[in-house]
């Protein structure tokens, strides 16, 4: 049994703690949160210890691995601490909002064999992963165009938006990772447009956008389009489509249930989409823990590594520059 | 060019006339209806002669073949006339409401090589035909269970119901033919239940039912279920499903268009189903003319023959007996 | 926290134990199995005690409620023991294969206020439950026809078939309960046909069927059709459709993932259906525990009661008689 | 009856002739083609005169209106001739490959009240039109993002590609019109990327692309993405999606039939998409004639006018410039 401690007991940390608790080959070693009451709550419910500090976790011989679900500015520090303590680590995205900090972290942990896994959870969704598997199995030939639609059910609270780093670093970053995962090839140029259609005043205040379209191209001309919006009234819109020389594969949305209704003025009506990521990606979050346990047990490079976190962040930087300057940006400009 | 005359210029006759007019290898030779104005209307629109009588058509050397879309009681007479005149004939279903009359007609035309085709149009629907094709191609192995759902968008006018011969002879008869077509094997027993849920007073007056379920079995135990209702508020519900040892094939409904709507309380909402048979089976009616032209040109037995009309009617008789006596009926009881 | 002990650590018992372990308002009090190793395995994994006997559980003050997942012949005894011990009980279906034993059990526990819940898990599937909810919300008007398709991905091992009590008591029983749940009205007649198309020799030896169609009618003429087969190569086929005076509602199948593939000879191809009930009804099994915890905490009649178990069994008896005698059976004949 | 002559008897002209022939309020007045045999073939089949020249048509008092389906370089001349002859005209797209010629034509016919309709047939597809109707009915609120996927089943012959004017003028032009139609607002910027992935040698020779992505934005920041490819092995991929503040509406693809197949390794498999535009847009081509007859009879501005042809061409010009210079282009640069 891999003994995993969870740092951060917010909504995501708590969910990870429960998934670890339920995992057949893992054991929840304990939890920590700077808000002690949040940690106590989880600890009591699941019958595990509450740690007094993050340091205590990294020092504990009763902890084999750590899951980092604390606030973004602590991520890089904790990754470095995990490597120093030789504890495999699963860290929520992003590594940091600053590319420089991420690069410094990369330098600090360079050469480590401690598995460091990034929480790009969507790679573990059976639907999205099915897209990649179909590609790898040669079922659609060579990939030519990837289309990612990713819209939140509603805009996050102002307080979150204000510190999120902007839509590209906070929301599109998942899609940048998905684009790389599905395309299986690095992108060379990024061209983005942004609009303020959902919450114009807030967006102006934060110099942010709520509705964006990003086009990515590879050196060979392959294309990826990402459509994001901060509010889709019908729920959490999460689709991935790959078009290739021999076919196409699509990962579809998930309505809240599988019921279809017919009435006098309509047919085939389904429920709104699952809302929100905890529900929609429940299976993916559980599978992510599975992959982490695998990597930690076998000391193997995890499915999603530190460099994936950096690459996604660089794409976000390029998109920000593209919108600001109204022109396509070459990745080399931000690397 | 096959010169085809149309007898009967009601809604169906008119549609057939237009399809013949538009067919690349056929020519509308003229039309007839006991209501001369109805015939004149079609004749004028399409620029073809109006015949003064059915007899004139059968006697005309300018007519190669006939399409019979007159009222049911005339069908058998006209089929006999067509055979006598050596004119290939496409006759709307049913041949007659009386099994005895149908058998007499069969006797009268026994041994003829003149192609006599029955208008079981649904066999020509690309979806339903696709079910049969999948079976013939071995794609679902041996057929074990067939499920046919067939519901009209609304109940016909009282005047029609009163002379229709009842739901089994008028509506289910299409499904009996579809059941035989898809199963590819004759049925041995028929078990039917009927209810009066849509228009109870009318149904009682006509000793008829508006909601029925029929189970058919073959000698080898294979099963078919037909669900009928005289009113489906969401449109014309027309589905065929065949389940077999190696798979399943389903012919789906046709919404009025291919648009899907998403809103705050629903997703994937489509339009009501196409309404009614002229729209839903437009492609099938055109393909039916195609098959008839083929058979007439080549003097070959048509895809749907006189005997298919008789077999469907016998299944209807068995269903009527089954509901009346509350027991399964063996086909041999009504043959 | 409701302390629940699990009796029976086979595949289903183990899953229930894990669901209780993970439930926010329940605690797994311990497990028991006549095969001690099976119980120890679960106990060790989840860190809970293994009880030495069922008696020990019923006597324990550390157990508030029980879940019975032992072999069928023990169910009625354990239900009686649970009532005697005043411990709310969730019992897997069926109560017993013998109607007499079930009636005796009913007599033995008559008048109890101890919540006794039956494990008709499908009622808790969000899709199937959504059908019932749509009906209760008046979204399809009055229900006229219910269609249930229920096919296993593959036939169970011979050893299971030999003691299962036959397809109607073992497999269709779930559909009988679903039919009652969806129709919201008791059935009056049962008419069933059965065939031996999947495993003829085994079926003959067991006097059983592998492919059956059952038609149920209510006193008012409403109709329900159940289609069962013991092997569907494409996976676990689980669909429920209710057609009513104002619309229709369908609970659809669940492919293993939400990916659709397009190639040179096909489009929209999905994965096989989830296989088997533990995967397909994972959400429903978890929700079932939820409902049980609710009922036990509040000492309220559970969503699915003892009488529901009896009613489903009586429908199975009627179906068996119907197939044997080749005629519709009135429920009053078997009550 | 509106008497319409058809100029051009290639594949599209012939189809238009048949649709006019079948139309209840129109009559085919005759046909013309520079290849007389092509015109004779259609004339004989449909029993109408063959005109000896285009001039004869424009001069004929037996012709009320004209349909222009000749080669692109003749379109503008014939439009001018139609206006001069006061004959309403339905002209296939594009008006011309040269913006200058189109502008000259616009000047030549300025102020005319003769209805001039452009053949952007997709606007008449019930699915795509349904998207626009949903928007106009307020069903999705304000449109924020439009996504158009448009892929041909296979690349056209080299000879066609060589004179087509390039993918943006030949293929994307339909999507530019659809984008304007659905968005209901003019675009301000065009940003396009292109690749040579399907037929690289041919594309290089023609300075053309086979795989392109175009992003359009309006002054208010609303976004439209068009994905084109010259070969989709699964058929003619034609989808339109509009996302808005209150919902989303999607016009879906059309498989060749409505059958779904289930087997041991898949479920829900449909046929390839309809192939090609004559089949896929059969309903739309017929409705287009309907709209033209309406406009011609009532002397009203047609649903799709000359200016729509110009606007689409300007978007194509901007896309070409964008790809060439690797930057977003403002429409004002090409107007």
Layout of helices and strands, plus pairs?
4 copies of one chain form a homotetramer.
Chain A: E1 2-7, H1 11-22, E2 26-32, H2 36-46, H3 54-59, E3 65-68, H4 75-84, E4 89-91, H5 99-108, E5 116-118, H6 126-136, E6 143-151, H7 158-163, H8 167-170, H9 172-183, E7 189-195, H10 200-205, E8 211-217, E9 223-229, E10 237-244, E11 247-251, E12 259-263, E13 266-269, H11 277-280, H12 282-298, H13 306-325, E14 329-330
Parallel strand pairs in A: 1-2, 1-3, 3-4, 4-5, 6-9
Antiparallel strand pairs in A: 6-10, 7-8, 7-14, 8-9, 10-11, 12-13
Task: Report the structural category of chain A.
Answer: alpha/beta
Name the shape of chain A in a single word. Answer: globular
Counted up, domains of chain A total: 2
Give the terminus-to-terminus CA distance of chain A: 40 Å
Note the beta-strand portion of chain A.
Answer: 15-25%
Query: Low-confidence stretches of chain A at least 5 residues in length (pLDDT < 50)?
Result: none
Strand arrangement within the widest β-sheet of chain A reads 11-10-6-9-8-7-14
**Number of strand elements of chain A:** 14
Give the C-level CATH assignment of the largest domain in chain A. Answer: Alpha Beta
Compute the average pLDDT of chain A.
Answer: 97
- Number of helices, counting only DSSP H or I runs of 4 residues or more of chain A: 13
Most extensive chain contact? A-D, 40 and 39 residues
Enter the CATH topology name of the largest domain in chain A. Dihydrodipicolinate Reductase, domain 2
Describe the main β-sheet of chain A briefly: 7 strands, mixed
* Radius of gyration of chain A over all CA atoms, rounded: 20 Å
Q: Looking at this structure, what is the CATH superfamily of the largest domain in chain A? A: Dihydrodipicolinate Reductase, domain 2
Quaternary structure classification: homotetramer
Order of helices and strands of chain A: EHEHHEHEHEHEHHHEHEEEEEEHHHE
CATH architecture of the largest domain in chain A: 2-Layer Sandwich
Fraction of residues in H or I helices of chain A? 25-40%
């Amino acid at each position: 049994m891999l003994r995993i401690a969870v740092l951060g007991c917010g909504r995501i940390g708590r969910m990870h703690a429960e998934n670890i608790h339920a995992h057949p080959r893992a054991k929840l070693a304990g939890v920590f949160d700077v808000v002690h009451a949040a940690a106590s709550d989880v600890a009591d419910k699941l019958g595990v210890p509450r740690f007094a500090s993050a340091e205590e976790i990294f020092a504990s011989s009763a902890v084999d691995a750590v899951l980092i679900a604390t606030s973004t500015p602590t991520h890089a520090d904790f990754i470095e601490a995990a490597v120093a303590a030789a504890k495999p680590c699963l860290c929520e995205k992003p590594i940091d909002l600053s590319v420089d900090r991420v690069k410094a972290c990369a330098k600090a942990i360079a050469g480590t064999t401690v598995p460091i896994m990034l929480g790009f959870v969507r790679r573990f969704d059976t639907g999205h992963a099915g897209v990649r598997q179909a590609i790898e199995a040669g079922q659609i030939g060579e990939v030519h165009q990837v289309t990612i639609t990713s819209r939140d059910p509603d805009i996050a609270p102002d307080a979150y938006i204000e510190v999120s780093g902007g839509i590209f670093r906070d929301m599109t970053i998942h899609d940048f990772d998905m684009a790389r995962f599905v395309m299986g090839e690095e992108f060379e140029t990024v061209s983005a447009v942004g609009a303020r259609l959902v919450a114009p005043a807030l967006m102006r205040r934060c110099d942010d956008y709520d509705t964006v379209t990003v086009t990515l191209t590879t050196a060979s001309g392959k294309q990826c389009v990402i459509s994001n919006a901060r509010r889709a009234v019908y729920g959490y819109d999460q689709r991935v489509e790959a078009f290739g020389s021999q076919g196409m594969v699509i990962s579809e949305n998930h309505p809240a249930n599988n019921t279809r209704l017919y009435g006098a003025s309509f047919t085939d009506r389904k429920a709104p989409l699952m809302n929100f990521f905890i529900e929609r990606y429940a299976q993916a979050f559980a599978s992510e823990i599975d992959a982490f346990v695998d990597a930690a047990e076998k000391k193997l490079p995890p499915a999603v590594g530190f460099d994936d976190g950096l690459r996604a962040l660089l794409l976000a930087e390029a998109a920000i520059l593209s919108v600001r300057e109204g022109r396509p940006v070459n990745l080399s400009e931000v690397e």
